[in-house]
Design a protein that fits this description.
This protein has three helices and five strands; from the N terminus they run E-H-H-E-E-E-E-H. It is an alpha+beta fold and 104 residues long. The protein has a five-stranded mixed β-sheet. Helix 1 packs antiparallel against helix 2. The longest helix is centred in the middle third of the chain and has 20 residues. The protein is globular, with a radius of gyration of 13 Å.
Length: 104
């Protein structure tokens, strides 16, 4: 049984910003990114423990897991889950200050 996926406002903003950035050079790739991200959300909803636990000293971030977007491996989905839903917190490029951004 698949869990319900709920995207937080930061995740929506990230998806928009990433698509806008990719589309500057390649609009088709931007569309492919959105499709790949949605597929990754579905995979996570089917098996939420597939992501890696996010290693952090910040206790607020210890419940987060991450998973790479297939085909766009520089981008990571950060999420947490319960028995009924997956909460997509952010979608970020792996080269960014992840702990700093997620800790905000």
């Amino acid at each position: 049984m698949s869990l319900r996926v709920f995207k937080l406002p930061g995740a929506f903003r990230d998806l928009f910003d990433i698509c806008e950035y990719i589309a500057q050079d390649n609009p088709d790739a931007a569309r492919r990114f959105l499709v790949a991200a949605e597929r990754e959300f579905s995979r996570i909803a089917e098996a939420p423990a597939i992501g890696s636990p996010f290693q952090s000293e910040n206790p607020k971030l210890r419940s987060l897991r991450s998973r790479r977007v297939r085909g766009f491996h520089n981008y990571l989905v950060f999420y947490r889950f319960t028995d009924t839903e997956v909460e997509v917190v952010r979608v970020l490029h792996g080269a960014r200050d992840l702990e700093g951004i997620l800790g905000e």
